[in-house]
Amino acid sequence: MLRKRVVQIFVLLMILLAFSSVSFAQGSEVAAFAQGSEAIAKVKVNEQPEKVKGNKAADKVKGNEAEGSLTVSNEIIPMTEVRIINIEVDFGYLPDLEELEWTLGGKQFDEWKTWDFDARDYTGDPFILFETEPYLDGTVVKAQIKNELLFDTSSPTSRTIRPRIVDLTGYFDLIVKDIETGIELKRIMRVAPYDSFYLYDEFGDVIDEIKGNVINGRYIEHEVSGKTNEGRDINFVIVAKDKKSVDNYLKKTLPLMLENPEALQEKLKDGTIGDYKVPIWYNNIHPDETIGIDAQIKLMEWFSTQETIEYWTYDDDDRSGIEGDREKTKVSINVDEALDDVILLFNLTQNPDGRYHMVRQNTNGFDLNRDNAFQTQIETQIVTSEIAKWTPLIFLDLHGFYDSMVIDPCTPPHDQNYEYDLLNKNMNPLGYTMGNAAIANSTYTQYRIAQDHWGSGWEDSAPSYTAQYAMHHGALGFTVEMPQINENCNTSTVHLALAAAKYAIDGKDDLFMDQLEIFRRGVQGIDDTEVDEYFVAPDLETVVGRERGNNDNFFPEYYVIPVEKELQRNALEAYNMVEWLLRNGIKVDTLVKSTDVDGITYPAGSYIVPMHQAKRGLANTVLSDGINWSDWPVMYAEIAMVFHDLRGFDRYEVRVEEAFDDNTREVKKMVIPKGNIIIGNDKEVKNADEYVIKNSNNDAIRVVNELLAKGKTVKWILESGDGYSMGDYLVSKTDINNLSNNYVLDLAAVNLTSVKTITLAQPKVSVNGYESTFVLKELGFNLVSRNQADVIVDNSGTELQSGKHYIGVGGGSFTQLKDSSLIPGFDYDRSDDKGRARGEGLLHGIINQNSLITAGYSEEDYLYTTSGSWITSVPEGAQVLASVSDGDDFYKAGWWPGYEGAQGQIFAFTTKIDGASITLFANDLTNRAHPRYSYRFLAQCNICGTT
Ligand SMILES: [Zn+2]
What we know:
single chain, binds zinc ion, alpha+beta, globular, 27% helix, 5 domains, 24% strand, Immunoglobulin-like, ten-stranded mixed beta sheet
């Protein structure tokens, strides 16, 4: 174990080295705390010590106004390690020890208490005590203080305690006061979870300091990619040799990579490519997995301010992931030389609001690491568009906390839209390279490569996760799970990330060649069968390859997304889809003249997604029909993308080569035309006094809510006739012309003097569940407290109360509802729970055509669930709203072992109890705010509540 000990000393030295070089951040700098303390204020804890307020170094310098000095051996009191700090106090005269008062943040040391898990407050044993009581050495007063573990652990990773680590994080005045003379000496100390920890509000100052210390003319640029839901900056930092390197990559190399990768491959082969650099992207998305951010800051600092970086690794062929008694080797990186090869990108966190509040989710309650494909949240929209823009070669998403370090590549099943052979060829060895550095420079002794050491259960079947999303941009994309919250883990993570950079520096040409090959296959429309061996059956051995059906090529030639009414049922979602594609770096064209293909005439103005393009895999992932992977034993989360069905627009797959050549123009930016888009017969629309708003998309709901909120008259049409249908809305032309927002509406003008209608009032809705809250807000509903509500929308099954209209959303609410016995005659069944995802299915359904709740849906239409349940019995007299189709092909896409049980079963019903309507949906109408096509079920049910 001698070797281990030597290494530990080395690690310690490394930490100390790193420490001294960032001492500005900890020692001479006081971060802005005005905002920081707001977050603290929300936390209810007893008599907190007083943090130092104010900005930057000024306060710090002000510390010692009196003659004399107060020095400490370390300025940081860490919550996760026991530390003894030597204090020396020199008043310039001989003080009486008995007359000295010692305080930190205005409290005596023994008033600082550890967390009491029962009381849920800082009322436990003392946190800080004298290790050596003050004594005199000449005229100098010496003492030692020692801190205990604030949360009784060296790694406060538990979800309940994690948010608490910001409570006491901050700067505090250490004051030694001579009561006799009134003289006090002061210095500022920091209390933090670990030495390298930073609060969100400190990021700007830390980056500024690093920028101030940059050497050799290196380029460090701090950008703000955008603002979060609560208005915080998404911080993005570029470290490179110089600005020219960055411009060259973005303006010269990258366009060629995507447009003509083969030309670059030729230049690489014949040695004429010249100077080029590849970007490596470091990311965090779960900010309470704190080391994922702090490790980036350390790495950013090293690459900006160090001449060389040295570290240990295991440079052997061992694939056990276990340290054992393997031989360490030392690696040295000359940073200036390294920056001839790489550009480093630091996206400190995709969720700044989460770091501020120290939670995983964003402030709408969403886990952003399930939102990278759906992109319903602003933070994800901003970051994915940056990833698309940069097209990094390596992408690390840094997470915690698993007992053992876990590193991608993933287990099967893999998304078949990846060029998996090219990705895995480099990802697998890079995984080991990172793991080796992580254990060689920390006290950890083991890591797991998911693909090799786990076999299954850690799949990359959908780009919901940031790293898996980045793989669609040709990146070697890794989700990395680290084990702990403390300095040791942070150090380990820094070295893991450093090893990825070294891997790119050493293998740049080969890695770049493979990334270009991914794009070449795309641009040239090649479906290479080399990839097939990675797509296996659940036995993990039988190769099934890409599922091509009757086609030679897995990928179609084009997708067409028309907007004209004849071919498009939902122009709003068609526009939204084009916007999504462009944001994600996917080339979209528009037809300049109408074109016949396979007997369909696509009108001018239709959008065309040409599939001969570098990033066709991502386009196909979201626009293809999805896959039934229910025979796999476990899945990590949802896998059904199928945007056209789940968001409810028409898209056409075209397999005719060069079908639209010369008839298209590239769309650079999609702008939904100004003014409300009115689809329908122009002349009739112009001359009418009243309009029918067709119940065909979610903007119809938004307009109804806007008008009702303004006190305007909206009538709901109760019957179908020529040019209108039950569930459409009737409004005045003046009101439509005065709408405040831009909507995509399907309007019709017809003579409706004798039609049956009811006049609507805006429902007051109380919601339980973050997804439904987000969706109903987005649709413009008036959300109120439960007491004020007409209607209760509930994803949990716990909010049902007598006399109020009630909507239970998703099978997840069924257990509680059944147990409550408040709905006599209701019963349900579900498939067995397996893993994290309970059972996801895009299903063919049969929709009741005689209900206002289901108006606007076709008799045969889609249902979507993620809770794996169905209804087996409804109350007497209940009206069934939707059932699963009885046909054998009722299941279209997803992962739901046991889905067979749902065939032909009831999925939604409505009934009346005590005069209130009770409606239950087995469909998860608002799941992750993705299935927008289902929203009108919920919206109309809300509106029904007031009729
Ligand atoms: Zn995570």
